[in-house]
Amino acid sequence: MQYQGKIYRPWPEANSLLIQTTLGCTHNKCTFCDMFREKRFRIRDIEDIFKDIDEAGSTMHRVESIFLIDGNVLALKTPFLVKILEKITATFPECAKISLYAGLNDLRRKSVEELRELKQAGLTMAYTGLESGDGVTLERIKKGLSPQQAEQGMAKAKAAGIEVLLSIIFGIGGKERSQEHIQATTRLLNVMQPEELAPMALAIQPGTELEKEVEDGKFVLPTPLQILEEEQYLLQNMTGFATFYWGDHGNNIVPMKGPLPELQEVFLNRVNQAIATHPVCKEETLKTFAW
């Protein structure tokens, strides 16, 4: 496999075969992210992608899940991506899940017909970052996305039958805008209703623009108590739509995962207990690890 540069995949994809389809990220401007800073976005030659698929097919007897990397794979033109999906399904007919990274704007820019074509070719899930439903916060972190655009992208995915795992970041509004961030995010989630939700606590990545903002005092980190209160608000105010809660990211204060709304009250009780008794709530900042 001809992987190039640092390789990232979501933690739920730990057991998936990774096929590098693009290098880098089409946006690559988010202040909190350093995943693809050293890469200039480009599309790999389809012959090289096929060579990796063939090599995996000759050495792996059974592959049930595949994840396409790097960032924003859905930005590829639909016919090109269809060829890759068809090659995968022909090589691994037993594969039940093909997922990729996508921006909500990537979903929004494609027609429902294009997305349905991708679904028919084998695409089952898109991992996409919302981070916040608050327009001010999205602008500050240079996400290149508005709440309205996020809603439009999700609507197209649902119309095409492509499931979405949506990530949000507790604390990304900072100490100053914690309430506005989580309230707007929860409202938008209740509209978007992603099939899966991955919330994670903010971790400042070395070398990012956000790290410089923290050092300069332009961004004040939220307290651990604020981060827990954001999760508390989310679990109190999500309106009962069915989703799988991937709340077990390594930086989360109370790691937990499972289906909602079935476990919503259980998770809320755990967060309430942490707010009442966890010693981290007495700290000024949360100690986290780089991705």
Task: Report on this structure.
- The protein is α/β, with parallel strands linked by helices and 291 residues long.
- It has helices at residues 46-59, 78-91, 104-109, 112-121, 135-140, 147-160, 178-192, 209-215, 224-237, 264-277; strands at 17-20, 22-23, 42-43, 65-69, 97-101, 125-131, 163-170, 196-201, 243-247, 256-260.
- The strands form two sheets. An eight-stranded mixed beta sheet has the order 1-4-5-6-7-8-9-10. The chain has a two-stranded antiparallel ribbon with strand order 2-3.
- A hairpin with an 8-residue loop joins β9 (243-247) and β10.
SSE order and pairing:
Elements: E1 17-20, E2 22-23, E3 42-43, H1 46-59, E4 65-69, H2 78-91, E5 97-101, H3 104-109, H4 112-121, E6 125-131, H5 135-140, H6 147-160, E7 163-170, H7 178-192, E8 196-201, H8 209-215, H9 224-237, E9 243-247, E10 256-260, H10 264-277
Parallel strand pairs: 1-4, 4-5, 5-6, 6-7, 7-8, 8-9
Antiparallel strand pairs: 2-3, 9-10
Q: Kindly identify the CATH topology.
A: TIM Barrel
Q: So what's the CATH class? A: Alpha Beta
Q: Structural class of the secondary elements?
A: alpha/beta
**Poorly predicted ranges:** none
Report, as a whole number of angstroms, the end-to-end distance. Answer: 23 Å
Helical residue percent band:
25-40%
The CATH architecture would be Alpha-Beta Barrel
The CATH H-level homologous superfamily = Aldolase class I
Q: Mind summarizing the main beta sheet? A: 8 strands, mixed
